[in-house]
Every structure is written in structure tokens, then in C-alpha cells.
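Figure 2 data, in text form.
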Amino acid sequence: MILPLNATSQNRTTIQNTRIAFVVTSYFLFYASFLSVLALTVDRFLAITFHLRYQEIVTHNRAVFVVILLFLVSGFLSTVNLWFTGEEFTRALKIHTVCEILCLIIIAILYCKIYLTVRRHRKQIQVLQVREQNGRERANDARRFKLAGSTFCAYLVFLVCYLPIICLNIVLINSVLSKTIFHFQHYFLTLVLLNSSLNPLIYCWKMRDIRQSVIDILLVCYNYFGR
């Protein structure tokens, strides 16, 4: 990501510092959202694959550790552009592109495994229902499958929003930033930022617990500020 800088500007330092702050902040939010989708996918994979041991594997302390690590890695990757400037900028672009493609591959593999596991579990559930299975177990299985489907919807929206900017980065590695590419870069960046607004809507739409929690929070705010 390169922003134009007017060489005759009297506020060169201010513009340069603003550009740096914008790039670092944008990449930080980019990777925070990107890695959050990866973490959610891993969580759904563990819940579906190791549902009997899920509570043992995913503990509160481990979840907190992963969230902290997620933001630390996002902060680290967001500063990569500061290491390479000028003609070396393509090196930073290559690092970002490799990280993004690697995450996409991991997410795609995990969702394929989730799909195969869910299909196998559904066949097993049908057999158990013919024999014997209590209502609580069926409800838990249905809940896990629904959560997996909800995260998959979020993943599809994630692909629509992030794939264009990743493809553009691949193009920029082997070409010069032209005016046309510069405009496309801004449009695709808007899609990336839009993803952060779409994800809460998807989870509220697909998950009743989250939807009810949001409604409760809005009601509390309305009662508090509406007086």
C-alpha cells in the first residue's frame, strides 16, 4: 500500500507520518480480522472433531492466550512496511502476500475437514436416532453443526472481501503501481474494511444466542439513555 506524497508540500513530515500511521493501522486491523477468522475456524474444527474433549482442549486461559497472541502477531506484521521502503517495498508486499495465502490455505483445509466430519457425524446420528440417543446429545450435536455453518457463512463473506486485495497484491509484486491499480487498491481496501461491519451482522443473523445478547444490550442502552 503506497499513498502519493506531494514533493512540494510544506507539510512533508506531517503527511509522511500520517501515511505511516494509516498504513500501520490498516494492516493491524487487516491482520486482526484475518487471524480472527483463522482462530474461529480452528475453534470450530476442534469443536466438531474433538467434541467430547473440546472443554479440555479449549480452556479459558488458552483462549485468552490465543487472543493476546493474535493481536501481538497482527502488531508485528503491521510494522513490516516500516522495514522496507522505496524499491524494497515489494519485499514487504511478498511477506504480506505469503502470510495471507498461507492463512487462506489453512482455513480452506480446515473447512474441508469440518465438512467431512459433519457429514460423517450426521450419518452416525441417524443410526443412533434409530437406536438410542437422548435429547440433550442431539441438541448439542445440532448446535455444533449450526455454529460450523455460521462460521462458514462468515468465511464466504470474508473471501469476497479479502480475496480481491490479495490478488491485487500479487499483481503489484510483478508490476508498477499505476493509476488504475491505485484506484482499484482503494476500492478493494474499502471491501476489507467493510468486512468488519458485516461479520457482526452475520453472527447476529445466524446465531440466536448472540442475537439475543445484542438485543438485551440495546434494550439496556435504550432504557439507560432514553430516560
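Caption note: The CA atoms of residues 174 and 209 lie 47 Å apart.
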